[in-house]
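Weekly modeling sync, notes
Attendees: S.R. (lead), two postdocs, one rotation student

Agenda item 3: backlog of single-chain predictions. S.R. asked that every request posted to the team notebook include the full sequence so nobody has to chase files. The rotation student volunteered to paste the first one in as an example of the format we agreed on. Action items at the bottom.

Example entry:
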Amino acid sequence: MNGENPRDGAGEGGLDPARRAAFAQELLRALTAHCPGSQAELRGSLARGTADEYSDIDIVWTVPGDRFAPCLAAVRDVLESVASLDSLRTDPDARNSRERRLLFAAFHGLPLFWRVDLEVGSSPAAPAAQGESRPASCGDDWSDPASALANAVAATKAVLRGQPQNAQGLLERGFRRIDAPDGLSGRWFADIRRLAETAAGREPDLRPLADRVLRLADSHRAQLLWRTLPAGVRERVDELILAGRNIQAVQAMRESGIDPRPELHECVEVLDGRHRELADRLPPPAPGTATPGAGSWC
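Predicted structure, as returned to the notebook:
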């Protein structure tokens, strides 16, 4: 992460870990209250205390075996009692199991980075009465285009975490899922946008979700551009900023050789973000000098 704040701080970019923690606790309370004798707990990075602002919410909900089917049937309503759902999808690998289901929930108003991965488990295994069918699926099918959109979100997260190889692999797999040529350009924003648009073209019902993915990428456009620049250019830009040579820093970005050439306003947004990241290394402004802001460099 390079420290730039996304433009849309109140929407997809509102990555306040305290807000995510409070929301996760609400989900845990709602699940356990719905089914006495059940247990809901965090797993993954949130449970280990290693989460960053991009981490999703992993929850395991263990319910009594004889309550497995009723709890699955109620999952959507229980989650909706906490916040409105944008989507609820089921992992196809376990959708007919009597012991385990994995659900993926995206909530309205929460960043897509904070998808809830909810594993519903039965302890002991749900009993099978004679002639009884397996518990029904409680979410929409996890289609290949939906999976590709998830890859676009995960790739955005990987870029912001400074994991370009991981991001590249996620994008390549996303394009393969929908039988589209990857042909990655190396421009993170452009490649993520093309994957989202292609997935929506394959499954038009996913257009609202694809639009959210596009807004997510756009809200982090400056960060994605920063990570697109070659490492040597990034080092040079920081050197120029620390030397007070802001115009030259913008020129270095525009003349970095990436295609298409970055727009001036994009470079200025990156520059503002780098100033925030490097603030503790920059000399204080001269007395009476206004603090620089977006658009003031050039």
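Discussion: group reviewed the output briefly. Residues 1-11 have pLDDT under 50 and may be disordered.
Action items: rotation student to repeat for the remaining queue; S.R. to check formatting next week.
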